[in-house]
Design a protein that fits this description.
The complex is a heterodimer. Chain A has 15 helices and 27 strands. Chain A is of the alpha+beta class. In chain A, helix 4 crosses helix 10. Chain A is globular. In chain B, about 75% of the residues lie in helices and about 0% in strands. Chain B has seven helices and no strands. The longest helix of chain B has 29 residues. Chain B starts with 7 loop residues before the first helix and ends with a helix. By secondary structure, chain B is mainly alpha-helical. The chains are: A alpha+beta, B mainly alpha. At the A-B interface, helix 8, helix 10, strand 19, helix 12 and helix 14 of A face helix 2, helix 3 and helix 7 of B.
Chain lengths: ~625, ~180
């Protein structure tokens, strides 16, 4: 016999379940995971008490994978199989990557995203990133004592669609449910804004290991609104290391260092750069493989000079963002500095001069992004009461367009549009009976297709036969809250839905991801089917819980028959979730979603009516 | 039942006129996003997530349109069934065509001078003229109800906006 559960007085019979959700800062140099525990955001530590996980992955010949600090130390002895700064390769082709000639990897020259040949075979940047995410997921599950409901993963605000998609794919391969891709400067603004109860216009200057972002936000009570964003997705602390590395080669008279020496000197350069933040001059001493010695001293002033143009390269996007926001530097109330590279004194000086004020450095530039992401994850998981939630309005960083005649770009969605957003554009056929049409989607601000990033090519098929110019094909570009684009098309005169086949220029196909998922599970000696079953069961439980909660709140929106129908659907889903057939649950879930559609839209209507309740009704009805 | 066919003014409970109380517009927009934004639905069913994205998209589109005087004017004309005919020059007065030429020449000179101050000065003049046109548009829509005149003013505003973009591009080019 089941025991009767008696709850504490004052508590509901179904105590609110805290869902385990984390924020992950997947950085070029270091990655972190954070969560909100008992209302307090905190970064989670590994078993050695370290928060920062170096974003370094080493593939060993015995089939194991080493991630983090130990991989980092191994990079000088095994450079080819030890991948550092993999974020620079995400959603990028080989020709897009700077300094390939000094990189010790065995690149695979193929179409689309760059690949690396390692001792464990050819790896995509998505798989390498997934190893880092898996490691952080395990850390979180171990530390929190349960499976994660979901994660917010941060991306540079200036990441394009291909880079965002690659990040989301990596999370999928790592077995994470992505609640949202969140822009890094926005995450920092959440953490900073809530901590300091800030109101007004703020700029977030985020110089990470490999990416630079500037976001201008308007903060007011409960609203974080990004007004404009700009940046450089291939500029960061790594480039400062590289300048110093070149300076060392020049001044030590080294012309062609070996891969191992390159790695050793790059690591040395980073160490010296960090020391120059505190010291006026730093000695550079190291021995090379052939026995040669490097023995130099660098002054802080010299370092500032050799990297001055990198700093001024960041100021250009800052000015552009201000202009897009229609603001001057003096309108900005505070400048929040994010990313380890903002510790460099000459970076702080330059930013201070541009804005005419001392930048805000009173928070840890390494952890603030992960902390903000954790706070957002806590909201998205539904752990906060609705009235305590804040509203986040972010933008798309780069314009989206399509190629037209003569290699020109027609912009469809301009940069800095608030997301989610959609635009429709009508096209017509130019031949009688034309049944297909090809499109090329690009992202960027330039007028020529060749100067923009190619995102995807797609074809519309199944256009009904008509005379030239008679068909009206409406193509809709939808950008979701993750900043990801999807495309749909419909012929307007006949209502025929054209089939859209998208071939991503730098992305991975679905079957490639499925393959990676499989490989990952074989490697971990895990049973993929068990995992799939569990995922479906968790999803079914989540949906049932959400629906029951909605029925409690808004049950009156359904009549008796409709209510009975939905109850039957819930029961069917529940009984299938108790079974062991993942596919059956999936089918039942889809059926359930269809059955609950009407209820969901009535709830949405009710909510929107609530938004209008404050206005006079005669203003609404014209 | 509310549906997506409502016009943008209805959506925010505003009167369909050119003069808009921007504070009220923003308040209504934020109130609506607070209820429909995808962040509120991240842990709910796919059906609710999809609806939320559609509504949030619509709220953004409506706010973007009503916030900007040019987009709002254009939208009002559309609601009233007037085509502003941006593509055809025939609809433009000789006076406006002359003005366009003068602006273009000024922009060319400023570009050639490659002088930030000259470009900034031009941008200021455009802002001043824009302000005048917006006031004029309000009278044409809300007082006189002269849609033909309003369509002409919208075309002028559209031209000035394009010019403003070109100046911004020229300024950006100067910085590189």
């Amino acid at each position: 016999m089941a025991l009767l559960q008696i709850s504490e007085p004052g508590m509901s019979t179904a105590p609110h379940q805290h869902r385990l959700a984390v924020g992950i800062d997947l950085g070029t140099t270091n990655s972190l995971v954070a969560t909100v525990r008992n209302g307090v955001p905190q970064c989670l530590q590994d078993e050695n008490g370290k928060m920062l996980l170096p974003s370094v992955v080493r593939y060993l010949p015995d089939g194991t994978v080493d991630i983090g600090r130990s991989a980092q130390t191994a990079q000088a002895i095994d450079p080819r199989n030890t991948i550092v700064s993999v974020k620079r390769f995400m959603g990028r082709g080989l020709k897009d990557v700077a300094h390939v000639e000094t990189m010790p990897y065995d690149f695979v020259d193929a179409e689309g995203m760059v690949r690396l040949r390692t001792v464990q075979g050819v790896k995509s940047p998505v798989e390498v990133s997934a190893e880092i995410l898996k490691n952080l997921r395990q850390r979180a599950e171990h530390s929190l004592g349960g499976d994660l409901t979901g994660a917010v993963i941060t991306v540079p605000a200036y990441f394009d669609d291909a880079q965002r998609q690659a990040t989301k794919d990596a999370a999928r391969v790592a077995g994470l449910n992505v609640l949202r891709l969140l822009n890094e400067p926005t995450a920092a603004a959440i953490a900073y804004g809530l901590e300091n109860a800030s109101e007004g216009i703020y700029a977030v200057y985020d110089l990470g290991g490999g990416t630079f972002d500037i976001s201008i936000l308007r903060l007011s009570r409960g609203v974080f609104e990004v007004v404009a964003t700009s940046g450089d997705a291939a500029l960061g602390g790594d480039d400062f290391d590289h300048r110093l590395f070149c300076w060392i080669l020049d001044n030590a008279g080294i012309s062609l260092p070996s891969d191992r020496d390159s790695r050793r000197l790059l690591m040395k350069a980073r160490e010296v750069k960090e020391r120059l933040t505190l010291d006026e001059s730093v000695p550079i001493r190291t021995a090379l493989e052939n026995g040669d010695e490097v023995d130099l001293v660098i002054e802080r002033q010299v370092f500032a000079e050799i990297t001055a143009n990198l700093v001024s390269k960041t100021l250009k996007p800052v000015k552009k963002a201000l202009r897009d926001a229609n603001l001057s530097p003096e309108d900005v109330k505070g400048v929040v500095m994010v990313g380890g590279a903002t510790r460099m004194p000459h970076v702080q000086r330059a930013v201070g001069e541009l804005f005419g004020q001392t930048p805000l450095t009173n928070l840890d530039p390494d952890t603030v992004v992960a902390v903000g992401a954790a706070m957002q994850a806590n909201v998205l998981a539904g752990n906060r009461a609705t009235e305590d939630e804040w509203l986040l309005l972010d933008v798309i960083p780069l314009s989206l367009g399509i190629e037209t005649m003569g290699g020109l770009v027609e912009k469809i969605i301009p940069r800095n549009s608030t997301i989610p957003t959609a635009r429709a554009q009508d096209f017509t056929t130019f031949k009688d009976g034309q049944s297909a049409m090809a499109f090329h989607v690009v992202q960027g601000e330039r007028e020529l297709v060749s100067d923009c990033r190619s995102l995807a090519r797609f074809e519309l098929r199944g256009i009904p036969a008509m005379v030239a110019g008679a068909a009206r094909i409406r193509v809709t570009f939808q950008v979701d809250a993750d900043g990801l684009l999807s495309v749909s098309a419909r012929e307007q005169t006949t209502g025929v839905e054209a089939r859209v086949e998208v071939k991503p220029s730098y992305g991975l196909a679905d079957d490639e991801i499925a393959e990676m998922l499989k490989a990952g599970f074989e490697h971990a000696q895990n049973d993929m089917e068990v995992r799939a079953l569990k995922e479906q069961q968790v999803e079914a439980e989540r949906v049932i819980e959400a629906t029951e909660k909605a029925l409690q709140a808004d049950g009156e929106l359904l009549n008796e028959a409709e209510r009975a129908e939905l109850d039957v659907a819930i029961a069917a889903l529940r009984s299938s979730a108790e079974g062991q057939d993942a596919r059956a649950i999936k089918i039942q879930l889809e059926a359930f979603n269809r059955a609950s559609n009407e209820f969901a839209s009535r709830r949405m209507d009710k909510s929107i009516r609530g938004a209008l309740a404050g206005h006079k009704i005669d203003e609404i009805r014209i | 039942m509310l549906d997506m066919k409502q016009d943008f003014f209805e959506l925010f409970g505003l009167e369909p006129r050119f003069a808009v109380d921007l504070d009220r517009l923003e308040q209504a927009y934020l109130e609506m996003q607070g209820r429909v934004h995808p962040d509120r639905f991240a842990h709910l069913s796919d059906a609710e997530k999809r609806l939320s994205m559609q509504w949030a998209t619509r709220a953004n589109e409506a706010f973007r349109t009503l916030k900007s005087p040019l987009a709002r004017g254009q939208y009002l004309l559309e609601l009233k069934g007037v085509d502003p005919a941006f593509e055809t020059n025939t609809a433009m007065s000789a006076e406006f065509l002359m003005e366009q030429m003068e602006w273009r020449e000024a922009l060319e000179e400023a570009r050639e001078a490659a002088d930030e101050d000259v470009l900034d000065d031009l941008a200021r003049r455009i802002r001043r003229d824009t302000k005048g046109l917006v006031e004029q548009l309000e009278a044409e829509f809300d007082t006189a109800g002269d849609l033909e005149a309003a369509a002409d003013t919208v075309r002028r505003l559209k031209f000035l906006e394009k010019l403003q973009h070109e100046i911004n591009d020229a300024l950006t080019a100067l910085e590189s």
